[in-house]
Amino acid sequence: MPTMPAAWRCLARLLALALLLAQPGCSSGTDAPPERIVLIVVDTLRRDHVSCYGAKTLTREIDSLAAKGQKFSNAYSSFHQTTVSMASLFTGRTPSLESGKDGAAIEWNGRTACGMYRFAAKGEDEPCFPASISTLPALMREAGYWTIGVTSNALLYRPRGYDHGFDDWVEIEGKWVGPGKPAEFGKYTLPGQAPERNGAAINAAVTDALGRRPKERLFLYVHYMDAHDYLGNEVPYEKGVADADFYLGQMLANLGEQGLLKNAVVVMTADHGERLGERQVVPGTPSHYGNPSFEQLLQVPLVVWPARFDDTERLVRGDDVFRMLKEIAGIPDEGKTDLRPGELYVSESEYRTYSEGSWKSFQSRLTNEKILINLESDPGGTRNVADEHPEVLAAHEQRTAELAMSLATPVAGEGGFTEMERERLKALGYVR
Description:
Elements: H1 6-22, E1 36-42, H2 60-68, E2 70-71, H3 82-91, H4 136-142, E3 146-151, E4 168-171, H5 199-212, E5 218-224, H6 237-257, E6 264-269, H7 295-298, E7 302-305, H8 318-329, E8 343-347, E9 351-356, E10 359-364, E11 370-374, H9 390-406, H10 419-427
Parallel strand pairs: 1-5, 1-6, 3-4, 3-5
Antiparallel strand pairs: 2-7, 6-7, 8-9, 9-10, 10-11
Helix pairs in contact: 1-6, 3-8, 5-6
């Protein structure tokens, strides 16, 4: 019998996945905890570049999940940068760089770059992800799940504490390489593919990790970098998004072939978005450096398959995704929230960003400039209407001051970044 071409095998797997997702019997159909929970994070994925949210970029695999499950129309990252946003998603807490002193931010360094330094034990040399906080994977493990994490983001690595609670933690490491350069890296690099942290490498690592699991009850976290790496790959952002969509679909198809999507729940989201040259009320910084955190940096997709929740229109922050995943797993909620429902606070190094309803404000730490935007009439954030609505601005200032104190870090870590941390920042293009 002739061998089926690779392209046809891939198509067959994707068709099988589509049929599997279409079958209502593939999940429990109840609110009972599923046997498997899959958390997919696509790094730097803007909500408005996912086609089921109206984008021109075609994301068939995400669309398939949304069509058979549910999509949340008002999901937001807790921060514009991965170390902080993922710390929030893994802990359910609001990240903060507040010092509690004259509106100043704490120093951004290797200890504080997770936004959780206020939980560090005083006088102890803790990682920037303090051991005192319960993490999502640790809670999943306590609930009886075998926990696997596979990531290729160089800033999510073992000394910082992101692996806490994972039974099997895989880091796809190596220096950046661009197209046409030899990929001489770890065992998950596939021939002729660069950079080494693309979705193919991630999926190979997922396959290996699944082969090591001792039981079927599983929590799997997978972090794709293809959308993030569009600049280094010298391709349009849309191409990076399409690549990530393809690879996550391939990974889900592989899970389906192994029967691991039966009685499973899949949650797909992003850690943050990306600026793509928009002109806004203040210049800000390019890419996803924030300062301030415009909507393009914070609006992310959130898809759950099969449908598990009633209200898909409410504001869902990164820390809320933590609580959603706990609810899916049947883990009791301890009620530790820092913000009211419907509000978002981003404590940045140069700005304090606050939003509630249709209003969003930026307060500069450097110049004390205050900016107010009406997101309903000006979703692109191009006009400051602070003078026209002083009462709204005053309310934002008061609430921001309250949050700055409640989220303050009593002991600021010092010491800058280690050489290893600088190399990892270079690997992501953040420093030269």
